[in-house]
Amino acid sequence: MSARSIGYRKRFCALSGNSFARAALQCWQLLSPLSIISALLQERLLSIPFIEDNDQTQARHEHLEALRVLVGNVYPNKFERSRVVDSGREDTITAVVKEFRGYEPQKVEGERPASEAIELANQELKKITVRLAGRIASPPRVMGKAAFAHLSDGVQRLQVYVKRAEVMGVRNDASAEDVDGWELFNLLDHGDFVGVEGYLFITKTGELSIHVQKLQFLAKALLPLPDKMHGIQDPEIRQRQRYADLIAGSLKIEREEGELSPREVFERRSGIIRQMRRILDDHGYVEVETPMLTSKATGAAARPFKTRHNALDIDLYARIAPELYLKRLLVGGFEKVYELNRNFRNEGIDRTHNPEFTMLEFYWAYADVKQMMDFCEKMIRDTVFKVLGQYHVQYGTKPPAYVIGQTVGQQIYPAPIGAPYTVDVDFAEPFDRLSMRQAIKKYWIDDAKNNHLDDLKLRMQDFSLSWLDEPKKVQLLFSFISQRDNYREQAATVLRDDDQITEKEWEDYDELDAEKEELVNFQSWQLAVAEWSNQNREPNAEEYAASIIYLFETLAEPYIKQPTFITDFPKAVSPLSKASPANPAIAERFELFIAGMECANGFSELNDPKEQYDRFNDQMTQRERGDEEAMIMDEDYIRALSYGMPPAAGIGIGIDRFVMLLTNQPSIRDVILFPHMRPERVHQFSWMKWMVDELSTSNDWPILSEDQRAERLVERFKAWVSEADSPPSRKQLLGNTEEEMLRTARRALRVFGD
Question: Which residues contact 615 (CB under 8 A, 6 or more apart)?
């Protein structure tokens, strides 16, 4: 029996006091150490739920058990790193690379650097011993009695060189005795965490490296790492398993110009928040914290999440906005307050909306809406320059053709029809300021080349801003645009009955030539005008406000690319804002739009308790009519206002959308570390999902019947189990007969279809 086998046996005895281990030791002459480890593995580790059982994971489990025998504790408590770069903090791979990469000699591409330059650098570097830890970022390359690998701290990589005769391993127990370092190295897998100690040097190829003298195992990657060339492409996996996304981003080799890794996205997010905090602190604002759970869902028009406080026996709501609490502080004497807060709104999910999101809200006593706009503009501009070092931001990249307008997993890629995917946002120029009515005219009538309703402009040569002052005409526009398909269908029917279009053209009126298209558009508009000319009732303030908002959101908002303040919102949709002194029907309110997204909302705060009480009552009336997002009465807030609140301006800035802009991310979920997702379905067919995903990419998959899809799935399964390294146990996964396999395939397809 070899010395190594004896050592394995002793360590195995120490580790395992169970009957399984004793039985294995009794037949030691018949079983090799790795055989025992494999058996132990089957008993203990393969039962870990949600860990795929395949050749790769089995090999990693076997390595883990062998490491357990070799080093003892395979998940040690700590690793002490050196303090060479900065005596006040531990060395990281990034810090060491930044500090010593300058020693790498210059070289011509495709050639090795001069040996004299390498020797000169190594005379200095070999005096420097470091202790570093990180993840193995590339599969270890063994070349005879030496090996190379790269360690990563998630930002930078550093090569390590291991020589069989010179490396020692370290046991992770109280004895800390030396073990065979080369044996330890050969049990490592791509993705494992290790600690190394050694001196720096430059290799013959000119790369900064560590000559490892001591090697310590820190943690095992039981699952294989993602594709290092392309990263994770499926947006749902990236968002659901952010940990894998971060790993993949650190390993990814192919990266487009200007593309940020997932880690860089979230580091930039942190920098944006830090800079905005600094600006507010420098201007005398006090950061405060207000309740996350409230007895009333107030402060915004939104549907809340509801929970129950068992001890108090009351219902509570996750806050939809901190606004009313922050204004209570103005009543109490604070003049400038802010809160970086998480808000929760039980509403829809799309590219720019997530139920849980981050807002920066702040309030400024004795200021009005114009002063707040000025401050907001300067704050945004300064933040952009501080974070990016420039004022220009390229936002938007065209998604792959197959996802435009589609949903992939839970990732949505909508884009306004006709709107460009990429825009150069210039934060250096003064932000434009338009009233809501002016914006509708500008983006629909004056600059309609990219607007998907530009054909309607031809029907309305007499359109002017005065149209939007007449409630009936606003309702006409709202009705026509919101029900345009219905009017077009009616128009096509009228034209068919008059023999102006054929039966075939009527059946497919969305594919008409330009002349007939013009005819249908004209007729549909005439039908709408005729219908509304018979209306005698004037729309009320709420209906008029809702129609104006709809027209703005449809005709203008998607096409606002440069930073633009939109003002003059209807008072009826701004229950917490003061009315304009010049026009009582208009609120002193603004919203900031950039690249088609609302990024901020602010106004002069209403501080008249009687008027606020009446506004709340109006909102309650709307709730009684079925508007679940209308505000509720907050008696305590009215009481607070009754003590007197100074004139003030307030604002909420959407941090997530602002981060989207400055990191060029297409979805709000890409800038939230752990966005909420539907629970991932884990079922008996999960092991074959990759096959279904692969087959579903074929062009004819959508038109195949269920039986045809099942046949194709069985064919793919047979090819998989016929691979050279496929274990025999796989062959029965779908069934023993052709009929059983087809039946199982159909069941699986139904599960995935649901």
Answer: 575, 576, 606
Find the length of the chain: 754
The strand ranges marked E within 137-245 are 141-143, 146-152, 157-163, 168-170, 178-180, 193-202, 208-219
CA triple 229-231-236, angle to 5 deg: 155
Helices (H) and strands (E) counted in the chain, each on its own, are 25, 23
CA nearest to 567, candidates 551, 552, 550, 546: 552
- Whether 563 and 434 have beta carbons less than 8 Å apart is answered as no
Long-range contacts of 161-166 (CB under 8 A, 24+ apart): 161/201, 161/203, 161/209, 161/210, 161/211, 161/212, 162/212, 162/215, 163/211, 163/212, 166/211, 166/213
Q: How far is CA 506 from CA 445, 502, 518, 633, in A?
A: 29, 6, 14, 52
The DSSP H or E segment spanning 566 is strand 564-570
290 HSE (CA, 13 A, CB side): 27
- 679 C-beta neighbours (distance < 10 Å), count: 6
Per-residue pLDDT at 224 exceeds 50: yes
Q: Which of 441-450, 617-626, 734-743 has the lowest mean pLDDT?
A: 441-450
Question: C-alpha distances in angstroms, 601 versus 372, 442, 560, 590, 650?
Answer: 10, 21, 16, 6, 8
Tokens coding 400 = 């792959």
Residue 83 has pLDDT above 90, yes or no: yes
Distance CA 711, CA 705 (A): 10
Is the confidence at residue 307, as pLDDT, over 80? Answer: yes
Answer whether 0.85 is exceeded by the pTM: no
Kindly tell me if the per-residue pLDDT of 399 is higher than 60.
Answer: no
Burial of 683 (0-12, 13-18, 19+ CB in 10 A): exposed
Residues 572, 557: Cα–Cα separation, whole Å: 20
209 forms beta bridges with 159, 201
Q: Is the pLDDT of residue 416 over 60?
A: no
Per-residue DSSP letter, 355: S
Q: Provide mean pLDDT across the span 553-558.
A: 91
Task: Decide: helix, strand or coil at residue 202.
Answer: strand
**Residue 236 near residue 670, CB atoms below 8 Å:** no
Q: At residue 250, does pLDDT exceed 60?
A: yes
Per-residue pLDDT at 542: 86
